[in-house]
Amino acid sequence: MQFIDLNRQYKRVQETIEKGFSQVLEKNSYINGPQVRELEQRLAKFVGVGHALGCSSGTDALVIPLMAFGLRRDDAVFVPSFTFFASAEAITLAGGTPVFVDCDPVSFNIDPEELEEAILQVQREGRLWPRGIISVDLFGQPASYSEIEAIAEEYDLFLLEDAAQAFGSTYKGYAAGRFGDAAATSFFPAKPLGCYGDGGAIFTAIDEMADLCNSIREHGKGIDKYDNVRIGLNGRLDTLQAVVLLAKLDIFEDEIKRREVVAAAYEERLKDVLVTPQVLSDRTSVWAQYTLCAQDSEHRDRILEHLSARSIPTAIYYRTPIHLSTAYAHLGYERDMLPVCELLSERVFSIPMHPYLEEKEIDMIAQAIREVC
């Protein structure tokens, strides 16, 4: 059994991908081939924004717009601690300083009340200047953008949506990837829409932001690509990955529906023995992960050991919240400062989730969990 079974998916798109690869190889259009532009147009239409820019990874999709904002080391960018490391790392790479925020205990996304309190605390301390927010759409479910956008406007902060795990989900009827000044997503192979390597995309409705990001992703190019007008990086999406993503986009909406069926089956089988993930009523999830909560770390260890003995793969996202990571020890965070993040890191675990799980596999996974709970 695979945690995410890409082999089953490949059988659906194999012919299309191989045909697309052949076209790229025949034309030698490995960089900035026509498939990249086609993909960008389709992604922009899917999200409902004017601009989508393919780039080399989900991390670069965060770094590039952060570079466009012109961060300085005393600029505070508020980011949830319970997420993948890249959400904070991108802030540091772009020149700013992350300020970590606790999460909501139900959605696991950034808590708007904790966010506002963190902003006020930074203002009181006076060492950093509140500059922006990165909101993360964790495990496939968008954050609370009505509240977050209102906070960003009140305190004059930019808002960058990290939709790396939630491309394909919606908030109040609007697609993830269209909130804030810009948004980023990842096409890492394990993502709901993934390529066969690293890849990502930036979304924005702001023409100036699109122009800046387009320049930065190609070494700060000007009108002439050899007239470099700013510092940038090599952040392009290559054409072969665009071919993969175009093929997967054709089946993406069907796969989202299949993920919803799998999630509903898990909910029915596990809701009485563990805390199951809850999708808030004003949004949908693309179910990048199916994450359960055990009673405590010892209970989690027993469950994972039991599942491993039955060859059922699992994962823990995330065992260490970022504010307690070694890389950010210099910022002075201590245990109990972000209690919800820390509690979740001791309890959560994820089980297989992909569109091609069969009912007998779901039954086997659920039964194994029930045996130890």
Summarize the structure.
The protein is α/β, with parallel strands linked by helices and 373 residues long. The protein contains 11 helices and 12 strands.
Outline the secondary-structure elements.
Layout (H helix, E strand, L loop, with lengths): L5 H22 L6 H14 L3 E5 L2 H11 L6 E6 L5 H8 L3 E5 L10 H14 L3 E8 L8 H10 L3 E5 L7 E2 L2 E2 L6 E5 L13 E5 L2 H10 L22 H32 L12 E2 L5 E4 L3 H13 L29 H9 E4 L7 H14 L1
Parallel strand pairs: 2-3, 2-4, 4-5, 5-8
Antiparallel strand pairs: 1-9, 6-7, 6-10, 8-9, 11-12
Q: Could you characterize what this model shows?
A:
By secondary structure, the protein is of the alpha/beta class. It has helices at residues 6-27, 34-47, 58-68, 86-93, 112-125, 145-154, 207-216, 239-270, 297-309, 339-347, 359-372; strands at residues 51-55, 75-80, 97-101, 129-136, 158-162, 170-171, 174-175, 182-186, 200-204, 283-284, 290-293, 348-351. The protein has 2 domains: 6-246, Aspartate Aminotransferase, domain 2, CATH 3.40.640.10; 252-372, Alpha-Beta Complex (Aspartate Aminotransferase, domain 1), CATH 3.90.1150. The strands form 3 sheets. Strands 1-9-8-5-4-2-3 form a 7-stranded mixed beta sheet, sandwiched between helices. A 3-stranded antiparallel beta sheet has the order 7-6-10, with no helix packed on it. The chain has a two-stranded antiparallel sheet with strand order 11-12. A hairpin with a 2-residue loop joins strand 6 (170-171) and strand 7 (174-175). Helix 3 (58-68) packs parallel to helix 4.
